[in-house]
Amino acid sequence: MPHPHPSARRQIVMTDIYCQIAEQIGHVAAMSAAVTTRSFGIRVPDVVWMPPEKWEGIDRDAPIPFVPDLCVEVLLDRSVPQDVALRVKAYLEGGAREVIVVGQRGELQFWGPDGARQVSAHGITLSLEPMYFDL
Q: Which of 88, 91, 120, 125 is deepest in the core (most CB within 10 A)?
């Protein structure tokens, strides 16, 4: 079941992340795009990115039929983000090369097919405004 509409605070953080990713690795990112995972059905990551050639030929009015290279989950507004581990696993099993999880205090976790990473494999650095997080 989809999450209720994100709060203004979460939307601001999602937009900020989207803009930083687009600026750092290219403007073929999307916010709240439905993607098809093999193990967890249709999911809606907060931000996705993939190279331009992967966008070609897909129906942009339907869920993306695969998982993009990069998925971002923002845990603000989620009282019990227990499904985040399932989401990360489903994205990686579905072909994501990296998943970034932004915690409720603004902490960043980077995940790849081999597990947790210290930094982004895409070279992404996110600078997030502390005022939007529970510090």
A: 91
